[in-house]
Write a structure and sequence with these properties.
TIM Barrel, about 40% helix, globular, alpha/beta, about 280 residues
Length: about 280
């Protein structure tokens, strides 16, 4: 039987850096449309400072309005610290908490106002909270394929950090191409080493990419055992805490076309997909 993939749709990543505020009701309508598609995971909102990410300050208002009856999609919310995790675990609707753990000291300070050492302590605290409340912590290795800040980086550094996090009981770790610098040779090396070594950990990919490089990134990761992918409709998104020019997410519609071309099964409602894709065009204008 052909290997399937786990699709993580990331409207949160698409929205967080958007220039104008998207009305709460528009967010709710769009998220409910995405829930009908049948994605495995929906990265829908965040529990971070409203000052840092004003676009998602209404996440707590959005949650009660999500139509989750009969839906298999699991909700993921991003948190930046233990305080945010303490809030997020209080919502029964949320299954995953996602934390961006940067292996670039510069970016970790820029993104969460904490050092790598301080962030590692936060991971430990957040993991304990998740275990206590029946949630799962997903850690993103931010700047996992390189960084523009001159901080020490190598594939081995990234791989070593995965080992440290796995030893803490983290079961899902996504390598994040935060500024879109991943190259096929680096992607191949990282997944070729990570996937066989950490058989009890799901190693995912959160690639940011230009329109011309997305396929080589997905294909190389797939060829080396990565079966969990983050993406966003229309390829919108990127981290506003990174470089000034956002490098967008890989477009979900491209991954769907790629999967179809490679006979990779997807459990998606295609009619609902088309409706959500059309709705995205009216939200991100």
């Amino acid at each position: 039987m052909q290997q399937s993939i786990t699709l993580v749709e990331c409207p949160r990543d698409a929205m967080q850096g958007w220039q104008h505020f998207i009305p709460t009701q528009s967010k709710v309508d769009y998220l409910n449309a995405l829930l009908k598609v049948g994605f495995d995971v929906l990265d829908f909102g965040s529990f971070v400072s409203a000052k840092a990410i004003p676009q998602l300050a209404d996440t707590k208002e959005v949650i009660p309005q999500l139509q989750l009856d009969g839906v298999n999609t699991k909700l993921l919310a991003i948190v930046a610290n233990t305080r945010g995790a303490e809030e997020a675990v209080g919502y029964e609707q949320i299954h995953y908490l996602g934390f961006p753990f940067s292996i670039s000291e510069t970016f970790q300070l820029r993104n969460t106002n904490k050092t790598i050492a301080e962030s590692l302590k936060q991971v430990e605290e957040m993991q304990q909270l998740c275990v206590q409340h029946g949630k799962e912590l997903v850690v993103y290795i931010s700047m996992g394929f390189g960084n523009p800040y001159g901080d020490e980086y190598s594939a081995e550094v990234a791989i070593n950090w995965v080992g440290k996090l796995a030893a803490m009981g983290i079961k899902t770790i996504a390598m994040a191409d935060t500024v879109g610098v991943a190259q096929p040779d680096n992607i191949e090396y990282i997944y070729k080493h990570l996937v066989p070594e950490f058989k009890d950990v799901t190693i995912g990919a959160h690639f940011h990419s230009t329109a011309t490089t997305w396929q080589e990134k997905i294909q190389t990761a797939w060829d080396n055992g990565c079966y969990r992918y983050d993406s966003a409709m229309k390829g919108i998104g990127g981290c506003p805490m990174a470089k000034d020019e956002l490098v967008g997410n890989i477009a979900t519609e491209n991954i769907v076309l790629w999967a179809d071309a490679n006979n990779i099964p997807l459990k998606l409602n295609r009619e609902a997909f088309d409706k959500a894709w059309t709705m995205a065009a009216n939200i991100f204008i």
